[in-house]
Design a protein that fits this description.
The protein is of the alpha/beta class and about 220 residues long. It contains 7 helices and 10 strands. The protein has a 6-stranded mixed sheet with strand order 6-7-8-3-9-10, sandwiched between helices. It has a 4-stranded antiparallel sheet with strand order 2-1-4-5, with helices on one face. β9 and β10 form a beta hairpin. The longest helix has 18 residues. The model has no long low-confidence stretch (mean pLDDT about 95). Bound molecules: adenosine-5'-diphosphate (2 copies). The site of one adenosine-5'-diphosphate (ADP) has 12 residues, from β2 and α1.
Length: about 220
């Protein structure tokens, strides 16, 4: 089933044309990447999906229905600074559930069994600054996935990490994704990351962005 569909989506900021008719789709349970140069308009696509910006033209459908206003079906994980420094890891991870209206107690009960899988067991009462960059991003991902939205939006989730940590996080995410089958859309400018993690990849042109290519992974052999 098609979960997300963008058709000929256009967006400009003043005179700056950013999206020049972007069309793409994500099926249920698929991991799709949007690969493109920096400044192409990738984050703009995500801001349209979360409802932070409105498209100038084209159509966006989620589960067959047009996307309107604030979109609460998307769980968004930013590149960095997702965690609040003054809250413990546990209180950071439960935050999204509490915002949805769950009590802190219920949120803790839901999150606690998952801490080990995310490599955070024993670090519940630490503060973000006490953890490594990789651990902080795993905490940010846990906070995002426990919200059980229709779709996971990952904006360069490992882009701020050193190369070695990034590789280990990619391996870990691949294992996690195979286990949980989140429907995910990843933004990256890292070709290897896109190939390693995705079922399909859309390659965007430089701004104004259009889809230049669509690849299935594993890539067909010549
Ligand atoms: P990417 O995520 O691919 O690096 P972005 O979507 O962040 O690219 O930005 C694409 C282009 O749109 C950039 O040139 C950026 O300067 C411009 N842009 C993004 N948001 C705004 C805005 N609110 N006002 C004006 N220009 C913007
Ligand atoms: P990653 O960021 O991929 O977890 P690191 O090399 O930074 O990789 O951390 C490896 C392990 O070291 C962590 O999984 C954790 O068990 C431990 N660790 C990292 N930071 C701390 C810390 N501040 N205090 C105690 N243990 C830590």
């Amino acid at each position: 089933a098609v979960r997300l569909q963008l058709e000929d989506v256009r967006k400009s900021f003043g005179q700056t044309e950013v999206l020049d008719g972007v069309s793409l789709h994500v099926q249920e349970g698929e991991f799709v990447s949007i690969l493109g140069p920096s400044g192409a308009g990738k984050s703009t696509i995500f801001r349209l999906l979360t409802g932070a910006e409105r498209a100038d033209g084209g159509a966006i459908h989620m589960n067959g229905a047009p996307l309107e206003g604030r979109n609460r079906n998307m769980a968004f994980m930013p590149q960095r600074d997702a965690l609040m420094p003054w809250r413990s890891i546990l209180d950071n991870v439960t935050l999204g559930l509490e915002v949805q209206g769950m009590t802190r107690k219920a949120a803790r009960a839901k999150v606690t069994p998952l801490l080990a899988e995310f490599g955070l067991a024993g670090f519940e009462n630490h503060y973000p600054a006490q953890l490594s960059g990789g651990m902080r991003q795993r905490a940010a991902l846990l906070r995002t996935v426990v919200q059980e939205r229709n779709m996971l939006l990952l904006d360069e989730p490992f882009g701020a990490l050193d190369a070695l940590t990034r590789t280990s996080m990619q391996r870990w995410l691949e294992v996690m994704w195979k286990r949980h089958r989140w429907t995910a859309l990843l933004i990256t400018h890292d070709v290897r990351e896109a190939v390693f993690l995705s079922d399909r990849i859309y390659v965007l042109s430089a701004r104004p962005a259009r889809v230049l290519h669509e690849f299935h992974v594993p890539l067909p052999r010549p």
